[in-house]
Each structure stands twice: as C-alpha cells, then as structure tokens.
Amino acid sequence: MLSEQQIQDINKASVVHKENLRVYEQLFDKYADMAYTVVQTMVRNKEDADKLFVKIFDDIYQLPGATESEKNFCPTVLSYVYTYTLSKLTSWHIGFAKNDPRIMYNLICRLLKLKVKFKDIAFMFGETETLLKLKLKQIVFMLRYSVSA
Fold first, then answer.
1. What is the pLDDT of residues 57-80, one digit of tens each?
2. Which of 19, 75, 93, 108 could form a disulfide with 123 if both were Cys (CB 3.0 to 4.6 A apart)?
3. Domain residue limits, the chain
C-alpha cells in the first residue's frame, strides 16, 4: 500500500508531466511549420527530412527559454534548426551549398509565406537585415538574368 507521501509525489509528477506535455504541444503548434520548412528545403530526401525534424523538435523543447513564453524565441528556433540541419548534412557527407542562391531564395520566400519576420530570418542566416536584403536583391537580379539569358 502506498503512503500518503508517495501518493502526493505521484500526483505532483502527474501534474508536472501534464504541464510539460502542454508546453511541448504549444511549441509544436507555434513552430512546427516553420522548422519543417527549413529542414525540408535543405534536405532533399523526404524520409531524412522527417527523421531530422523529429530529432530537432525534441531538441527545441530542451532549449533555454522553450518552456517560458518568450516573445523572441522564434529567432532561436530558426537559428537552431538551420545550424543543426547544416551540421547533419555535413556529417552525412551530403553536399549542400550553404550559399546556393536558389536555396536561400526559396527558403526566405517559404518562411515569409509563413509570416516569419524578416529580422528573424536574417538572424537564422547570421546576417543583419540590411545585408540579407542586399543579398536577396542580388539573388533576384541573378535569377532574372539567368532566366532571360
């Protein structure tokens, strides 16, 4: 038979578990589309992208600030997903042109469609907003020129 203290401990653990699950669900609802967009754009193989997304999202829950409702957590998530995906592609010996203008353009457009702030996208790439805007203009010019040539 369980003691009164053991019953209280079990009840506390149950409350903590339910709270952790609620926080995880909130994080998933808020950031899953954005994170999957980054992974899917960078990883061409859908099966690998899905596996990587699951691993990354479990890690996101462990990031500092994840369990609090921080307003500025989005740049942290983007940066983590982008950096982690790059490192995995490197460890898998899969060639990925980090500065491929088509991939960068596609990724930026897809994130903007998800209503991700441009400043958060710039943070993900480790750039200032001004520098990323300049790069984006150059990419658009290059893509237009290559299509019309």
1. 777 767 666 655 555 677 878 888
2. 75
3. 4-148
